[in-house]
Amino acid sequence: MDKPLGIVIQGSLTAGLEIRLHPDISVEDMRVGKFLVVRGVRADFFCILTDVCLGTSSPRIMANPPSPDDDFLQMVLAGSGTYGTIELAPMLMLNREANRNEVRSQKSEVRSLNGKNGHDEEKNSSKLASFEAQTSADIQLLPVKTIPSHFSQVYDAQERDFRSVFGWEDDPHRCNFSIGEPLDMSVPVCLDLHRFVERSNGVFGKSGTGKSFLTRLLLAGIIRKQAAVNLVFDMHSEYGWEAVKEGKQFSTVKGLRQIFSGQVEMYTLDPESTRRRGVRDAQELYLGLDQVEVEDIKLVAHELNLSEASIDNANILDGEFGKNWITQLVSMTNEDIQMFCDEKRGHKGSIMALQRKLMRLENLKYMRSTCPKNYIDQVLQSLKAGKHVIIEFGSQSDMLSYMLVTNMITRRIHRSYVKQAETYLQSKNVSDRPQQLVITIEEAHRFLDPSIVHSTIFGTIAREMRKYFVTLLIVDQRPSGIDNEVMSQIGTRITALLNDEKDIDAIFTGVSGAGNLRSVLSKLDSKQQALILGHAVPMPVVVKTRPYDQKFYEEMGDRDWSEMPDAQLFALAEAAKNDLGF
Ligand SMILES: Nc1ncnc2c1ncn2[C@@H]1O[C@H](COP(=O)(O)OP(=O)(O)O)[C@@H](O)[C@H]1O
Ligand SMILES: [Mg+2]
């Protein structure tokens, strides 16, 4: 066991623990987000450091501090007269004493308890973490229900402690994926991807903090571990093919299609732009005006500047003309509109406004009046075949196009998933089971704003959770703009630096017991650090994000044997033969 860092001097379950550091430990080594273990009498408490303070035992020292070059007096005071304290938020308890059998029976007890009220709990709020070890080790993890007694010692977390809770990435019995490392250790922090894809998740953080990189990591993990199929609405064209990396020099990183070439398909709304960027085999995607339903228009009412009355009139037109309502409307003359209104009780002014505004749709590059081929079906077929689909917007990435297309495609795919899921529920036949689908959307607050969330497909998906095998991965820099109810359904929250109080509050919506993590969130580095909490991790944890670089591509991709130097290839072949016993 290594050296203790300090002892518990006071604390409470709600406010956390106060630790007095031992004299030889410098406060300067303690930083917010650090991972520490308090060894209590019966349990180990895994904690996150939330604050650092300086203390003095007597006001006289403050009134009369030693002079800066009086090293001797400073040393005399250190540890007795002056000391450092840190505050810890206990996040998880690990019972040390229970023997194996006991653990097993307690485990099943916990499980049956979870089973009984699991449902209610899920409905009302999200959990801070899963509190389940991501290994097959016989250990029992518990949410913190008590605190360690006075003068318990505090230690740096050991790699062993960490592994037993977070598991191994290459564990064949699990779907663990390493998302990074704790701040001051080099051991992987794994997400349980099976649990991850079961619920909708969020990646949050200010602009430039690494959301796109994190998202790319997560998508790569899902592809590599085959946890689900992905449908990505790639607003800024950065997931499929080469994306720019900020830095002193201009450099790019690989997109998912380059790492997993056979498994990822790209579609584009702007074929020229995609081709210019060097993607040769992206498939074109067109939508027909006859595919646009009133519901689709409703979501972009704000972008098109449509009034309630216009939407009502759109419904009347739709009732009259069916799926050709937009083409019909656009070709109507003023007299036609007048006649229509006389007959069908539409409102002339609203219909004319609607006509003017829907003309914008006609001019969109990817919009045809009718499409000979149903491209959305094609996307669906790709997904059914287990291919991951990335849809690029190129120059068509304004909010109107992004929302319209994302909504149109998602609504139809969701509809098909509901059908499939219902077939499966009836037949219970494994071959009917739809493949879990994860839909990635950016600028999510636009789709999940409280004023529209009840009428959009995304609100529905977030709320119905795993029922139809479709979940969301939402990427957003302004979580406070997202409806509270949706936020509280988010399973796992991966959050990079946020400064805005409202945004920080939003992250903790619906999770109880996370209050003292607020300070951690606002003190993260501005890049490549994130706080992870929720369903897919055994306990909340701060990570340095896994670098997305050459090494990562190699770890994710299948090895390209043809490009490997001969010597290395022969050595590996030899090792493989030995494994097989030749
Ligand atoms: N995991 C990572 N690996 C390598 N570089 C990263 C990583 N995360 C962030 N970065 C750096 O931070 C920059 C900003 O990240 P990005 O994901 O584009 O931010 P955001 O999407 O939040 O605006 C990147 O260009 C890159 O240089
Ligand atoms: Mg980004």
From TrEMBL:
InterPro entries: HerA-like, HerA_barrel_dom, HerA_central, P-loop_NTPase
Annotated spans, Disordered: 100-129
Pfam family, one: DUF87
Biased composition annotated in UniProt, kind: Basic and acidic residues: 100-110
Residue ranges constituting the Helicase HerA central domain according to the UniProt record: 178-413
Helicase HerA barrel domain segment(s): 5-91
SUPFAM superfamilies xref list: P-loop containing nucleoside triphosphate hydrolases (SSF52540)
Source organism superkingdom: Bacteria
Protein name: ATPase
Organism: Merismopedia glauca CCAP 1448/3
